[in-house]
Amino acid sequence: MGCFPALEDVPEQVVEFVRRTVELPEDGDPTIGIERRPAPPDRTKALAENQKLRRDLDGADETQ
Question: What is the CA angle 39-42-43, rounded to 5?
Answer without folding.
Answer: 65
